[in-house]
Amino acid sequence: MVHSEMLVEPVVQELRIPAGIAGPDEVTMDVRCFLVSHPAGLLLIDTGPGSADAIGAALDRVGAGWGDVTDVVLTHSHPDHVSGLADVAARCPGAVVWAGAADCKDITSTVPLRALADGDHVRNLQVVAAPGHTAGHICLLLEDGILFAGDAVFTDAGALKRPPGAFTADPVQAEESLRKLSLLEPDRMLVGHGAEIPDPAGALRRLLEGAPETS
């Protein structure tokens, strides 16, 4: 597999959250994994529930196979981002699996997990520690200004929003992490839930300032 340009391929699945977990009603939302190219192959960000077949289809779309996946990086320990790990790891047994150091103990894995800290690099991605949503939540920054934000924020109908408080371990830390991400001024920002929006740097600033977002 050879790519002359950077490739970022999203893998989008629908997730249904039963009533009483994220609110009084059932919630339907998307959950996203990402394939990212690097000179030696592909890196996979997150492994959602039952995602292996969808990831396999994405590999087909880009002319690659499971053997091209060199690394799997988990942004955090929540099941909607890690519950597909065993199936994914079985399909790419040569891949190294990484996660934020503080979340490793909370992730069930059939393969060893390698711990990541702020400033580390996995291939062409820089690790940006962004605790709050979970203690070991991480974001990933590509050299060309693409930020993979995990669940530090999400988008809904074109608006940038904070994750629900019920799923945020430490709201104070989460807010500090948002400020840290805003200082990166990303050109693009891809999130674990929701479509990409324009002007992510401006959207982060407005979110922190409390200004409403418009679609």
What is the ordering of alpha helices and beta strands? EEEHEHHEEEEEEEEHEH
The coarse silhouette is globular
CATH class category:
Alpha Beta
| Low-confidence sequence ranges | none
**Beta strands, count:** 13
- The number of distinct helices, counting runs of at least 4 residues, comes to 5
Report, as a whole number of angstroms, the end-to-end distance.
38 Å
Structural class: alpha/beta
Fold-level CATH name: Metallo-beta-lactamase, Chain A
CATH architecture: 4-Layer Sandwich
Give helix % range: 10-25%
| Rg result | 16 Å
The largest beta-sheet arranges its strands as 1-2-3-4-5-6
**Total individual domains:** 1
What is the CATH superfamily label?
A: Ribonuclease Z/Hydroxyacylglutathione hydrolase-like
* Main beta sheet: 6 strands, mixed
Please give a handful of descriptors for the protein shown.
215 residues, alpha/beta, Metallo-beta-lactamase, Chain A, 6-stranded mixed beta sheet, 5-stranded mixed beta sheet, 5 helices, 13 strands, globular
Concise account of the structure shown:
With 215 residues, this protein is an alpha/beta fold.
Description:
- The protein has 215 residues and is α/β, with parallel strands linked by helices.
- The chain has a 6-stranded mixed beta sheet. The protein has a 5-stranded mixed beta sheet with strand order 7-8-9-10-13, with no helix packed on it. Strands 11-12 form a two-stranded antiparallel sheet.
- Helix content is 21%, strand content 32%.
- β7 and β8 (125-129) form a beta hairpin.
- The protein is built from 5 helices and 13 strands.
- It has helices at 52-61, 79-82, 85-91, 171-184, 200-209; strands at 8-17, 27-38, 41-45, 69-74, 96-100, 113-116, 121-122, 125-129, 138-142, 146-150, 154-156, 159-161, 188-191.
- It has a single domain, classed as 4-Layer Sandwich (Metallo-beta-lactamase, Chain A).
- It is globular.
